[in-house]
């Protein structure tokens, strides 16, 4: 499966989503590893099997085994961290912010790829998962590393496109079921 196959499964109402998916493939504002690792991490975060299969297949030829593993690790570790730190941030009980998280997060310190790439992927996953505390943390690290606001915005734009493709696919499937 590929991005083109995914686009073909989206209903007529999702023309903008198809166009946005196409624009991701031609975007040159990120390195190849940044772009395709971002696509993998965000696809996994959608939790939609069709989107995951299509986008991982699209990305696989462009990523080393280490980069593929790191992208999967970014989705996984942020899945954990986003729940925990979103709770800490949203809870009105400030005591939780003083308590140690007691979560293993070694992969963040040693992801197996360039730290900037991993942080970019983690930021995008955090945007999908809606963790403001994690978004702020990753964005600050990226900016200190010299990453431009445009690159950060591109990562979040990709996250939004990939998430919306999962939603559009599910709506398309409902449309097909209703027609039967």
TrEMBL record:
It holds the Pfam family CMD. Gene3D superfamilies: AhpD-like (1.20.1290.10). Residues 99-171 form the Carboxymuconolactone decarboxylase-like domain. The keyword Magnesium does not apply. One of its GO terms (biological process) is cell redox homeostasis. Transmembrane segments: none annotated. It is an enzyme of class 1 (oxidoreductase). Disulfide bonds join 131-134. GO terms for molecular function: disulfide oxidoreductase activity; hydroperoxide reductase activity; peroxiredoxin activity. InterPro entries: AhpD, AhpD-like, AhpD_core, CMD-like. The active site is at 131 (proton donor), 134 (cysteine sulfenic acid (-soh) intermediate). It catalyses: N(6)-[(R)-dihydrolipoyl]-L-lysyl-[lipoyl-carrier protein] + a hydroperoxide = N(6)-[(R)-lipoyl]-L-lysyl-[lipoyl-carrier protein] + an alcohol + H2O. Keywords: Antioxidant, Disulfide bond, Oxidoreductase, Peroxidase, Redox-active center. Its EC number is 1.11.1.28. NCBIfam families: ahpD, ahpD_dom. Antioxidant protein with alkyl hydroperoxidase activity. Required for the reduction of the AhpC active site cysteine residues and for the regeneration of the AhpC enzyme activity. Belongs to the AhpD family. This is Alkyl hydroperoxide reductase AhpD.
